[in-house]
Amino acid sequence: MSDMRTVVLVEGASDKSAVEALAERRGRDLAAEGVSLVAMGGATNIGTYIDKYGPTGRNLRLAGLCDAREERDFRRVLERAGFGSGLSRGDLEALGFFVCVADLEDELIRALGTATVERVVDAEGELRSFRTLQRQPAWRGGTTHAQLRRFMGSRGGRKLRYSGPLVAALDLDRVPRPLDRLLAHV
Questions:
Q1: Where are the domains of the chain?
Q2: Cβ neighbour number for residue 26 with a 10 Å cutoff
Q3: Which overall architecture, per CATH, does domain 6-103+174-185 show?
Q4: 73 pLDDT higher than 70
């Protein structure tokens, strides 16, 4: 895309889908605004994409979303690329990189509440599968929140399948902070 001015780096396709769904709900056309969403195929690929799109590459404006467990990697790569040193979480946010408490699914489940997420799972025709997971010995005593997180990650493609419907179910006044701030930044 020759009009690209900003690249938003996200871990995977489900994160990209969630950002796209929220942008659409807010009436934004990111492509028309010169914003390109890039699913990196895993957070460990951040260095490749910073090199490609950052100061030593195409020198585009960068932003991103990562899980808490990848925050240190993002910080290290951004520091190495010249975005500062000793970067704090606040510094990352000022640069346009936002951290999810655990991951984006965790953020969405907390924002929606487990009852709403269960309704979304039911609407997708998978409530029976979710109930089966809840009865498994390893998950029987867990919280519904933890069970839903596990369910979202228990089958390939499920995170992607649910990213749009979960964002669609959000009250726009209760958008998870990292997702809300990312869109506000770009």
A1: 6-103+174-185, 105-163
A2: 12
A3: 3-Layer(aba) Sandwich (3.40)
A4: yes
Alpha carbon distances (Å) from 138 to 61, 97, 147, 149: 44, 35, 10, 14
Contacts (Cβ under 8 Å, ≥6 apart) of 185: 63, 96, 98
pLDDT tens, position by position, 125-154? 999 999 999 999 999 989 999 999 999 988
Q: What does R_g of the chain's alpha carbons equal in angstroms? A: 17
Q: DSSP assignment of the chain, as one string?
A: -TT--EEEEESSHHHHHHHHHHHHHTT--TTTTTEEEEE-SSGGGHHHHHHHHSTTTT--EEEEEEEGGGHHHHHHHHHHTTS-SS--HHHHHHHTEEEESS-HHHHHHHHH-HHHHHHHHHHTT-HHHHHHHHHSTTTTTS-HHHHHHHHHTSSTTHHHHHHHHHHHHS-TTS--HHHHHHHHH-
Give the Cα separation of 37 and 31 in Å (integer). 9
Q: What is the pTM of this model?
A: 0.91
> Would you say 72 and 66 are in contact if contact means Cβ atoms under 8 Å apart?
no
Beta carbons of 100 and 67 less than 8 angstroms apart:
yes
Q: Are 62 and 50 in contact (CB under 8 A)?
A: yes
> Distance between CA 100 and CA 38 in Å, rounded?
17
